[in-house]
Amino acid sequence: MAEHKHGDMDTKVQQGTYDAFIKFCVWAAISIVAIFVFLAIFAT
After folding, report:
1. How far apart are CA 31 and CA 24, in angstroms?
2. What does 1-44 look like in DSSP terms, one character per residue?
3. How far is residue 22's CA from residue 30's CA, in Å, rounded to a whole number?
4. pTM score of the predicted model
């Protein structure tokens, strides 16, 4: 079995995926809040 060296793995791909996921979540939350505000103002 291969020796494992802590901190030796390249994590650029994982970091990029995580950053994209966080951006998606932020934009989704902003969109949901905007829809709620729109409905609160105009859906009466």
Report:
1. 10
2. -PPP-TT-S--HHHHHHHHHHHHHHHHHHHHHHHHHHHHHHH--
3. 12
4. 0.71
